[in-house]
Task: structure prediction
Amino acid sequence: MIETRISELTCRAVKELFGHEVPLSAVGIEKTRKEITGDFTILVFPFVKISRKSPEATAAEIGTFLQQHMPELSSFNVIKGFLNLVLSDRYWLKFLEKNSNNADFGFHKQRHERPVVLEYSSPNTNKPLHLGHIRNNLLGFSLAEILKANGHKVVKVNLVNDRGIHICKSMLAYMKWGNGETPASTGLKGDHLIGKYYVLFDKNYKAEMHGLIEKGLTEEEAGRQAPLIVEAQEILRKWEAKDHETVSLWKLMNGWAYEGFDVTYRRLGVDFDHIYYESETYLLGKKLVLQGVDSGELVRKEDGSIWADLREEGLDEKLLLRSDGTSVYMTQDLGTARLRYDDYHPSSMIYVVGNEQNYHFDVLKKVLVKLGLEYGSDIHHLSYGMVELPEGKMKSREGTVVDADDLMDEMFRTAEETTRELGKANELSAPDAEQLFSTIGLGALKYFILKVDPKKNMMFDPKESIDFNGNTGPFIQYTYARIRSLLARANAAGHFWEDAEIDRGLPLLPLEKETIRRLYQFQETVQQAGEEFSPAIISNYVYDLAKGFNGFYQELPVLKEEEKQKIYLRLMISKFTGDIIAKSMAMLGIRVPERM
Result:
């Protein structure tokens, strides 16, 4: 990258001009602000003490040195302590010609290092996937693609929460009120059917609690003593004791959930390399906890419960095993981390989990280290914010969540309505039109969610996400389709631009140079997104690229240009832009249509 060459020459300039050696890290390089002439800006303030001159004089001397030793540099200007460098048109044309057909441009070669294990999704088998899960899945899948683009080997894993009291609640409700119905007999997806009973349990449980509170119990006492919760806890104990009848029902209902999840995952376009199940990891977690007691790192209290004392680490005491021997979430996460380490010996383990679990992962890392398992330090929690709707927060137990399948149906309908209104599907066959509506609808959903910084809470508005003129997936998809149409028309008109050599002495217009420079920034953007674990960086880049290209396309004629070299140049810029849009959208898990 040219920034490295600029940094190296700047260090050399400081040494030769001012007699001091400085490290590359001392050279601060930024993209020049739009209102100032330049491509890159060097901050010279760190060198003023060395030069013993004013910032302006220091910048001017360094700029002159760079211009003498760097053929790529055509000119420079100084504004206070900022040295603005202008690269030659020849440099940008050479970059364009070299990389416009490079399928690997912007991507790092695969690193020879241990893999990254990336967990996302983590559904509960007592309810279908909802809008919150969609953000989780989209973030996880996109981050995997971004890390791969940065050369990392990635193992995508899913941890299915298939055991615990919440699963027993759905099981108990089905036992009481199910009357033997099945997904086949009801026409419901299996995960939807089970979710129905989870809501039914909560409704009746709250009624029981209300009755007990009216009899004088506190809310906490009523919550513990309500008959339904007592029965659910008994089912959990039976399950852990491997009671045949209980385990058979558990397998049946979980099987329904898995079938439903698979349909949703395929439609959403996400997948996994390995699926773990908490029912298979919690026993290993219990074993680790008991070993921790034997080694004296964990504490068994008088009631038989086992705790980790993390007060010296700035936290508090954390329950790891209940007094009746049943495990908690932390227990199974300890077992899962150990199993993943044994399976893959990863360089890091990334967990895509909502920010309400920040404390949980602080504890997990510290407990693992306390148990002598150093890979606890290699755990990274990608903590993301909640998704809300204009109507407010969602609650699974009350049945007020936005179901993932229903949302995708709504996105399809909205895409169809909007696309037909704009006449963008008039010439398509029915199957092609249906495929386009699906591509636009899912693209709108994914882009709208991924363009937001993962750490922030967000409001999702389906209508706003399918605006063809805003910062949306459909706008970017339409830009790609426009480019493909332009290239097809160029070929039909006999412009054999793909085999042409561009005259590197050709002067570039500002919009041409600006578009090429934005394409150059793709490699830096991919690297930054990988370092910060943020698909939003890719999203915002590709929107700026698409927006900038539309300005380029509207202002500068392409096929109507009279000079053949300019036609070839602008077609090459267009094709390169389309390729980078496609690459960027692929990292977001979004397809781009050839026609629109």
Remarks:
- Confidence is low (pLDDT under 50) at residues 393-399.
- The chain has 22 helices and 14 strands.
